[in-house]
Amino acid sequence: MTDQQEFIIRTEDVRPEEILGLFVPIQRDRELVDKLKSTAPTIIEGSRGTGKSLLLRVCEQEQFSEFESGRVLPIYLSFARSSLLTTKDGQQFQHWMLASLCSRIVRVLAQSGLEARPTEAMNLLTGGHIDKPGEKTKLDKLAAEFEASYKNPGDSIDTSAVPTIERFREAVEDICRSGNIRRFNVLFDEAAHIFRPEQQRQFFTLFRDLRSPFMTCNAAVYPGVTSYGDSFETIHDAQVISLNRDITSPNYVTQMREIVYQQAGSKLQEEISRNGNNFAALAYAVSGNPRLLLKTIALAGTVRTNDVEKVIKEFFREAIWSEHSGLSERYPGHKALIDWGRHFIETSVIAETNKKNEAWKAEGKPERTCFFWVHRDAPEAAREALRLLMYTGIVARLDSGVIATRRELGTRYSVNIGCLAVDSPSPIAYVSDLRTGLAVKRFTEYGANVASFLEIAARVGPIVEADLSAVLQTLLVKPISVLDLTAHQHEALASIGIDTLGKALRSSETDFKKAWYIGPKRSRQIMNVVSAAVFEYLSG
User: Fold this and answer.
1) How many CA atoms lie within 13 A of 415 on its CB side?
2) Residues of the chain whose pLDDT is less than 50?
3) How far apart are CA 337 and CA 321, in angstroms?
4) Cα–Cα distance, 488 to 430 (Å, whole number)
5) Which helix (H) or strand (E) holds 31?
6) For the chain, which domains are there?
7) Contact 361, 433 (CB under 8 A)
8) In what order do the strands lie in the sheet with 239-242?
9) Nearest-angstrom CA–CA distance, 92 and 434
10) In contact, 198 and 229? CB cutoff 8 Å
11) H or E segment at 398?
12) For residue range 404-433, what is the model confidence (pLDDT) as tens digits?
């Protein structure tokens, strides 16, 4: 038996220096980490739980260990708190990003024993001279002020201490030259949040403008819901790489099993070995998402047939769709798109896919599919709905420019295999049959004028950019039960009266120490975990 507490399902739950112990260096992930280390700007796209943060942290820790020889200093920075920025400053996001980046560089330099002298360049990154070592800099305080702006959205914030991008780049060059640092390698995590297009455009403009011989920028973003803006060219300004794990690879199950083995005890490992077909069914059901694999194994409790089939039916019929439908609470203006997307996948894509697979099976043909194709001229509303489905991992975009019938061009997608299997009398048997014949060249086609596409286009009209700040206060009174936390973490919060998202955000380490069996070390850990879960929930 196992339970959810035994698995670490978020990178935020792990101390950075312990990250390498969880890393399974399969070929694809190893290649991505090496890309992040290079001088070429790289953007990794992946749905929630695919391991984007882990790869950035692995890159950071490996470069720290290699610093004496390579002299490349990694700067890991998360922008998860962007959802709280609600000031009237039109450039608030850029000011906050620069202030946060300056503060993080100063901190990493201090932790690495570099550039302790109060030079002009260091003063620029701190916002002014620091009288006492270790005290918060002016830009530290400014970043915190922006992050607390949701409490008083009408207040003005003095940003005069924030350097211009030009001055910042000059300071970075001076610090690199004086400290014998070859370059800074910036790793932006949670870089572009869902439904904050104006923030995304500012981010990618900054991403492009920061590039220099002394600084490389990399980022992790969500697929489908990221707006790069007109001034950012994904071909010239960065290489965009998908984190989708290839479910048609002959090594797929082995790779997913190794991810679980990194955390599983000997009893669970033996159980997985005895029930290899059952484990393979779960591995394919999650369609390459490590977090979902760990969660479903934890929920199943065992890898026995009845437990695996029960969790597939419950999780992929209820939990994964609940997360997708929940987006409409955050962004009521997109409710029609969100609801239509679910209806389209369930009644059209899944129905057609299963119909094809059943027909091929009856005819004795080996081919199976979980893939579908959408014409490049499909209405914007339909494409937007599919992008939202990509965010939650129900749909994955494989490639664009794919030629289908009548030489038409479009985008090829896959639908989550667990969602395909839920209505089968035996999900394990269904997945076992499907995985042996998956053929990416077999897919259902949806042309530009599919009736349901035209219907949603007429109903929705032009796509309106949504803004999280409009519903932020409503979200902050949501119960803490909406967060993706372990049972123990939920119990700890309940024991000290933290019952809403707003209370969790305002809590301190001292507050968490009041929980049962929570000491100083655990209080900081649980505060970080809870904060990360809150920001992930707020961002969609």
Assistant:
1) 31
2) 1-5
3) 14
4) 35
5) helix 27-37
6) 38-242 (3.40.50), 252-460 (no CATH), 477-538 (1.10.150.20)
7) yes
8) 72-78, 183-189, 215-221, 42-45, 239-242
9) 49
10) no
11) strand 395-403
12) 988 999 999 999 999 999 999 999 999 999
Minimal CA–CA distance to 318: which of 293, 346, 298, 344?
A: 346
Helix (H, G, I), strand (E, B) or coil at 184: strand
Q: Is residue 125 exposed (0-12), middle (13-18) or buried (19+ Cβ within 10 Å)?
A: buried
CA distance 149 to 142: 11
The reported pLDDT for the residue numbered 220 is 92
pLDDT of res. 39: 95
Contact (Cβ atoms closer than 8 angstroms) between residue 115 and residue 122: yes
Q: What is the CA 21 to chain-centroid distance, rounded?
A: 21
Token couple for 327: 């987006």
Q: Which of 423, 419, 422, 417 is nearest to 436 (CA)?
A: 417
Report the SS3 class of residue 239.
strand
Token pair of 330, please?
Answer: 């955050």
Distance in Å from the first CA to the final CA of the chain: 32
CB count in 10 Å sphere of residue 239: 15
- Residue carrying the six token digits 């089939």: 309
Of residues 515, 363, 370, the one with CA closest to residue 441: 370
pTM for the model: 0.84
